Every structure is written in structure tokens, then in C-alpha cells.
Amino acid sequence: MSMRKALQFMVLFFAFAAGTAFAADTIKVVYHFSEGLEQASRGLNNIKNHLAAEPGVKIVAVAHGQGINFLVEGAEDKNKNPYNINVEDLAAKGVEFRVCNNTLTAYKIDKSKLLPQATIVPAGVAEIAKLQAKEGYAYLKP
After folding, report:
1. First to last CA, the chain
2. Distances (CA, A) of 141 to 60, 108, 116, 122
């Protein structure tokens, strides 16, 4: 191996190692919501606990199917507590909420009925797969 190739290899190696070390500093997690309001209550509590334990964690909540129900205006838990308060609080802490457009179409839910913190993505399951495969997110389903 020539000196030039060895030097190129070392530069690439250290650049990759530095990038990997930086990426490892930020924990990224996708929370999967698909089962309705009971799962939403569990999941939002899990996210609160996660943020308390790991303040720098990057969290994305992806909802599809009945999992979107807590992100619709007026949604309440079994004790009549509105979900929007928890969603607003978590969004203020950096949590992103993404909603499946396929579900909105299938359930005939108007986009204007979603909480303002919710971002619409084309397909919830595809969003979860992308976050895991391409962006290095860990997967949790409460």
C-alpha cells in the first residue's frame, strides 16, 4: 500500500469514527401508536418518563390506525383529561408527532381536526421504517 493510499485510508477512518461517535451521543427513538386511546395514555407517560431519564433524547411519535385518536381535537382519556395538554407539553420539549395520511383518508378525518402539533406524513408504517432504517432510530411500542 502506498503512503498516499494509507493516508487516505486513515483520513476516511477517522472521519467515519468521529461521525459515528457524534451520532452515538444522541439517542433517537420512534414511538409507535396504532391501538387507540389506552395505548396513547401509556405511550405519553412512557415518553414523559423517557425525557426525564434522558433529557437529550430525540423522540418522534408516529401514529396510524386507531393510534391517531389522541391527536384529534377534543380527544380525552378515560378520566376525561384532554390529550392536547400532554401533547403541547411534550412538543414544547422537542417531541415530534407524525400522523399517517392514509389513516386520515380511510377514516375520513379532516386534517383541520388534528392538533396543531401533529405533522402529516404519507404513510405511518413507512415513516417508522424510514426512521429506523435510514435515520438510526430505536423502536418502541408502548
Report:
1. 52
2. 12, 25, 23, 20
Is there a domain that residue 11 lies in? no
pLDDT per residue as tens, the chain (142 positions): 565 555 555 555 555 555 544 455 899 999 999 999 999 999 999 999 999 999 999 999 999 999 999 999 999 999 999 999 999 999 999 999 999 999 999 999 999 999 999 999 999 999 999 999 999 999 999 9
Number of domains in the chain: 1
Whether 13 maps to a domain, the answer reads no
Read off the CATH number of the domain in which 118 is found: 3.40.1260.10
DSSP line for 26-68:
S-EEEEEE-S-HHHHHHHHHHHHHHHHH-TT-EEEEEE-GGGG
- In single-letter form, the type of residue at position 102 comes to N
